[in-house]
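Summary for the steering committee. The consortium agreed at its last meeting that each partner would contribute one worked example illustrating the joint modelling workflow. Our contribution is presented below. We chose a case with several input lines so that the handling of multiple components could be demonstrated. No manual editing was applied between input and output; the record is shown as generated.
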Amino acid sequence: MTSVKCFSNWVKEAGRGHLCAFLSWGILIIYGITMLTRLSFDTDNTWFGIGSTELVWICAGLGIVLAFFEFFYLLQPKKQDLYYSLPVSKNMIFWSRYVHGLAHFLVPMAFVLAVCGIYEGSLDMQFLKASVSYTGKSILTAAAVFLIFYHLGAVCLTVCGNIVTAVLSCGVLLTFGDFFLQNVCDVFACGFFRTYYRLPLVEKLLEILSPLSLAGRLTGSRLYEKNEILTFVPQPVFVCAASVWIGAALLIFAFAVRKRKTERTGRDFVFYAAESTAEAALGILVGSWFAAFLLDISGLTRRNALAAGILAAVSCAAAVLAVHCLLEWKFQSGRRRIFRRKFQLAAEILAAVCICGAFPAGAGSFDGYFPEEGKTEAVGVSIDGLGMDYSSWQYIIHSGDTYQTDLQLTEYRLEEEGLAAALAWIHNLQGGRMTETENVYTNATICYYMKDGSEHYRTYPMTYADFESFASVYETEEYKEKAYPAPEPDKTENARFAWYNGVKETDMKLTEDEKEALSAAYETDRISLKMSELEDVLPLGFLRVDSGEQRRAWEMPVYPSFGQTRGLLAKYGVQPEKGIQDYPMISIEMYETYGVPANTSGGVSWKYYDAPEDIARWQPRLVPEYFDLQPLLCPLDYSEVKAVVENTDTNSTLEVECVLKSE
Amino acid sequence: MIELKNLTKHFDRICAVNDISFNIPDGVMFGILGTNGAGKTTLLRILAGILEADSGTVCIDGEKKIYKRGCKENLFFLPDEPYYFPNATLKEMAEFYAGQYPKMDKPGVSGMAESLELDMHRPLRTFSKGMKRQAFLILALCSGTKYLLCDEVFDGLDPIVTEVMKNLFRTEMRERRFTVVVASHKLNDLEDICGSIGILHKGGLVTARDMKESAGEIHKYQCVFPEGADIRPLSVREEMVKCTVDGHFATLVIKGEGQIAETMIRTWNPLFLKEVPMTLEETFIAEMEGKGYDIRKVLQ
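What follows is the complete predicted structure of the assembly.
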């Protein structure tokens, strides 16, 4: 028997029972049929390869399951007695199974994706152009995801001696990075760093160290736009990370399968080194997590950083010791020697304490960070409650949501005159850093975009005086360009202009010159806008401009101080002063919420007004909810109000969501 | 020939095989005796290439790398509880083994299965323990290997089938130079079939030798001595392995040549003297006790 023939015989032998084939082909064919059905209805929002979350889960799941099926014999002493007594090497048995598992995923996966690609290409001309590259990239990325999980499964099976440990190890390997970064690093950073907002390094590590996140990044599972998905190529850093995962796992299990001792089957780990690694990894993870958990629930980091640091170190050391002893007890049988690895235990405790100690030790440097001169490319600024509606602001305060803040940090990216003003303002803000949380007026979140491509995020609490001093940034032309974006006057010839007064939208029929003049007037008025003005006034309405191109539309609030814009609007037939108060009102519904005891229904009162005197009383206070742009500067009464007004132009009624002006 | 030299194997702190050295010549049935935990299975698994010895060497036909395919093609290991694939039949297992052992005699399997009334097409999982044992013994005998390593070979077989299987072994050994290494904790299983025996105790080798040789050196006599005869000087002689006296009746186990032993007894003028055959157990007990081992403890 030649080696090649023997190998192919063993690949066939690995298929005994056809479990892998049945599972892999079955799932992928079902996936293919589902995708073909979905594609027949919708090719714009259905993705069979890149962009498909289902495919990521299938690749990951099959990777783990096939690895367990293929290499499960390593946990079966009787089966090993049979195989290892046969005239065939252990390596050949292992690698033939490896190839078998690989083939039973790659072949059906490539087949199913190719069929889907051909089918979609026959339906969708836009897809047809990218069909070959999209399908090819999808096959490659799906294979990469499968390989990551298949190899991780193989590592667990070759290193562990029984199924329980193998499954647990697999779970730990898949979640270790995620858990450590989110439940330890993030918690410590949030607790000890007073200016913490987010750490890009931790986020990047999370995507690299968590196989599931990495799989998502490789396959573009966060993309929704068709063009983006069709042209998606995974970032090199993620390709490298995937290669490292695959390669490192391959090296580990190739080594493990050679050195694995048959007699240790049934034990937790077949290598003493694996036992030590598991002890160290779990000890440090649990120890640092326990410390983070204690600090989180005690809230001590905010009150006394030194005490918090000591508590973290002590609790962490205790937890490491407990985990180490527990695992030592578990790994041994008969007469147990719990402290046989004293130096390792000491190193584990030291490492965990260092992790816990690194955060309080680095807090001063983190909080006092200010970029060196000339190294900042841009600064993103977001102030809670400024340039956002009330509900978004409340969402930030109460649930810690970062969507709106992140959006503003991208939109309000200052690179020119705004950059200098912003850096000067931030420097002052840092100089008078607050220690008393009672005086906090709001929070400013800053992103320093560095010339080397890195990003540094900080959140600073602000007093009212700090906020007032922000006018120096707000009133720069660059900031206003970001806050009140408008089309360039000479590029508006094909744009559609409309006026929205909070009740209805009116199309404006303008000539090219009129459009240009209106845009130029808006730019002029915007320059003269003062931040302090916004404390008293609400917009009169919005000038809406749609360029006709994809994603090029502007919503331009017009304030009473925008004299030139108002004048031109009036000239072009719009009544900018006409607001909700000027429409005949039919009824007003008001919803008010109030606190009720737990497990009690109610908590909402509803009032309906249609009597003329009631309407006359409430109508002057109504503000269309759409006008709620500056809840920090110009707070309103945020009761939920629905006003039904009469549209005299069309003899119809309009329902307008409103809030109330403060009394 | 299988040569074991200073073979040692530890499982953590437990020494399963402790510095064992002996040879297994070709064409014999070599029995390995020992209580549970004596190291019999470990020794067989090392010989089969499943386990690696911590130190020492195993040499099969002069080849030290016994994990090589060429070497393992001459070796079939039949464990105490052999593995078979789920739902596999005897026929399928024969085909599987035929793929591994080039000299596998598939028609032979059918023939033996027929003679033992085993259904080749019935899943092995539906077989009784004894039937499974028969099925695997058939596979082992038909594998065409030069060496067969069996763990608890006749365990679970009824006496009739045990005899049938022993006959099959004898036939096979007669027809080709076939070496069988059998591990068992029951001396009775091995006594009428094994040519040589090795006894393991707590991982160490107590003895390993040819049975005929052993049997030829030890003799058992039943004697009746006249009233008043004092045989105490006889019972303390160096050659005397064991002397049991019950009134006038005595059973003597004497080491050495039979003629000399008989002459020695006759000097005490026995009224009756007869040499009786010794069982393997008696031979070994006698020999072990002669060496100072309480062999009953070893073989209990």
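Residues 159-175 of chain B form the longest helix (17 residues). The radius of gyration of chain B is 22 Å.
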